[in-house]
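Hey team,

Filing this mostly as a record. A colleague (T.K.) asked me to run one chain through the structure pipeline before their review meeting, and I want the input and output archived in the tracker in case anyone asks later how it was produced. No errors, nothing strange. Just documentation.

Input sequence:
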Amino acid sequence: MQNIAGRIRASVSAAAFCIAVALPVAAQAEPMRIAFGDIATVESLHLLIALERAKEKGVDIKVTFLKSEDIAAQAVVSGQADIGIGGPYALLQKVKAPIRIFMQLSKLQFYPVVNTQFYKGWKDLDGQEIAVHSRGSGTEAIMKLMADKNGIKYSNIAYVPGAEVRTGALLQGNVKATIVDSSGKRVLESKAPGKFTFLPLGEVAATDEALFANTTYLKSNSKDVETLVEAILTTWREVAANPKSVAALREKYKLLPDATPDMIAEIEPYFTEAAPGMPLNGGGENAARDDFAFYTISGALTGKPEDLKVADFWSLDALNAVLARAGTK
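Output structure:
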């Protein structure tokens, strides 16, 4: 039987621009090359705003949108990118790559969902296929964790980058079980009320996306890294205080110029819902400890959480320097 990824390939042609493209060669130290394993959407607007603010402070930044977090991590490890966006815990432990997380961007806020025509609850997914964002992602970790908790085993895990893509695939009938973000949840509830059920998840406290970089780059470009961290912290705190500010800042920086009216209308509701869970201090050691607890249970990390060392996964120098100036919240 053709898997989910194959079935929806034709339906996601509009998202083809997120396919990986060649990155600059490693010999070029400038600009700061950021590899983002996703597409630019409403959900990433606050990050795009923060990057523009870092540019205003003198940091020359080039962002490349790639097909998946895996490719973004590989780009950083190979030296084709300086900074990656994702959750590279498995890579850090299993490959012992010389990279470190230096800032938490978001916490997991996702909703497992099934088409009620086929499934009603977790037990119904035993022996069935599901779709998640990418290998090693928070969405995969959640779905693996819930399989373990409910005593089930999936027949296959398909990797379908982009919450919007997975939401669309659900509506089109190409996916029967997956996991979406808050925006996707609202879309499903409004466009197909009663057709989908959101499965119980319980409390999850772990990193969804973080910034990570090669340790050598962090040391040799500490000032630029601090400028980036400060721009993100400032933006996160502003958005948390006033979610409506995102729409105005999008216009100021001319971001997502091809956004449709429906996408623009989604900006304020999305950030209003996301604001309470935004990490306003960049995560740091507390976030690392939460991640150890979650990712060891889900299987992305091995060992006992209390035995894992923060320094083996995180570099806190830039974040601590910025917090010393900007204060904590």
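Quick notes for T.K.: The longest helix spans residues 222-241. The first strand starts at residue 32 and ends at 36.
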